[in-house]
Amino acid sequence: MRVFVNGVPLEVDTGADVRAAVRALDAELERKLAAGSAYVTDARGIEVTPDATLAEGSILRVVVSARRTAEERDAHA
């Protein structure tokens, strides 16, 4: 089924969740989502959980926090 992540049309399996759609776009964004340094909103700007099931035509936007996680700060220390 076709969904849109950050304006990019993607084909994902029927029943795919938000996490799978983000992964289909960019594995690094998926890692940031899992680490809590990014989150996803729907077309209305409402935050959705990574495990939310998508419907055909879903529109998502991944928002990356400018703040570093504790793990990222430690890596740069």
Q: Which labels suit this protein?
A:
Ubiquitin-like (UB roll); alpha+beta; 27% strand; globular
Tally of domains: 1
Give Rg in angstroms: 13 Å
Number of separate helices: 3
Q: What percent of the residues sit in helical stretches (DSSP H or I)?
A: 25-40%
| Distance between the first and last residues' Cα | 43 Å
Largest sheet: 5 strands, mixed
CATH architecture: Roll
Q: How would the global form be characterised?
A: globular
Low-confidence stretches: none
Mean pLDDT over the residues: 91
Give me the CATH fold name: Ubiquitin-like (UB roll)
Task: Determine and state the CATH class.
Answer: Alpha Beta
- Tell me the strand order in the biggest sheet: 2-1-5-3-4
From N to C, what is the helix and strand string? EEHHEEEH
Structure description:
With 77 residues, the protein is α+β, with helices and mostly antiparallel strands. It contains three helices and five strands. The protein has a five-stranded mixed sheet with strand order 2-1-5-3-4, with helices on one face. 17% of the residues are buried. The mean pLDDT is 91.
